[in-house]
UniProtKB/TrEMBL annotation:
Transmembrane segments: none annotated. Keywords: Plasmid. SUPFAM superfamilies: Xylose isomerase-like (SSF51658). This is UPF0276 protein A6A40_22615. The lineage of its organism: Bacteria, Pseudomonadati, Pseudomonadota, Alphaproteobacteria, Rhodospirillales. HAMAP family: UPF0276. Gene3D superfamilies: Divalent-metal-dependent TIM barrel enzymes. PANTHER family: UPF0276 PROTEIN HI_1600. Belongs to the UPF0276 family.
Amino acid sequence: MAATSSSAFAPTVPTAAGIGLREPHREAFVAAGCPVPWVEIHPENYLVPGGPRLTGILRVRRDLPVSCHGVGLSLGSAGGLDPDHLMRLRALYDRLEPGLISEHLSWSVTDATYLNDLLPLPYTENSLDRVRRNIDHAQDVFGRRILVENPAACIAFAESVIPEAEFLAELVARTGCGLLLDVNNLYVSSVNLGFDRTAWLAAIPADAVGELHLAGHARMTVGGEELLIDDHGSAVGDAVMALYADVLDRVGPRPVLIEWDNDLPPLDLLLAEAGRAQRLLDARMRQFEMPAKNPEVHCAG
């Protein structure tokens, strides 16, 4: 198991609803007084030595905890992780001091070529050992634990012999990583592949879940069959919100994020979605008798 340690300077991401902060919203978000207690960014958008984009996100980070959700590390790559990409991420994390770092259970790099997709893995012993090595490597370089997100799947590999939830649980046991439970991905995969969401949730280690994601999905008809597509292009559907409530009952209150990347809505609508998630979270926190953890936020505009 890789040695991991959190930075003493990284602020804790509160058990509250945040938003995925995208550049078109950043200035309006700051002007509105940073109206949610934390945000998440894609670190690959800020791997630059300087300039207005990096300055802008450092300005947000001055007032809010930030979670970094990577999209390019490619934990499933057979050839290991790109050392240059790792070091650029490490340099950004040293500046931002994010409260959480997460990556996807997927691959997207082969022979130094970056693909514009998060591609699925067969769940086999070979895959498990490969991802385990890559997580150990990443955690060693970053000097802290990462969270690994469950993917959204449309198809299953015939070679897969390990159920996804058990695959994730084994990664936690072998590396000390945590989990980012994407509720929309779980719903999409369970509908497309026809597995039992309750059994999936029972098989993952609840204590390892460090963050939740909520998002919208689309419906497509392929070959006469309907598929759900995790497109992050709409409001969170009622079925996903119901599953989110079930997850809170089973896992307990966690920081929860609204992801919306395509057909980006006005900031007010994104904040309203965070409000829906916060109200459910508040209700569960009262049940669990947890103190409110929303910090008072000041942002000088």
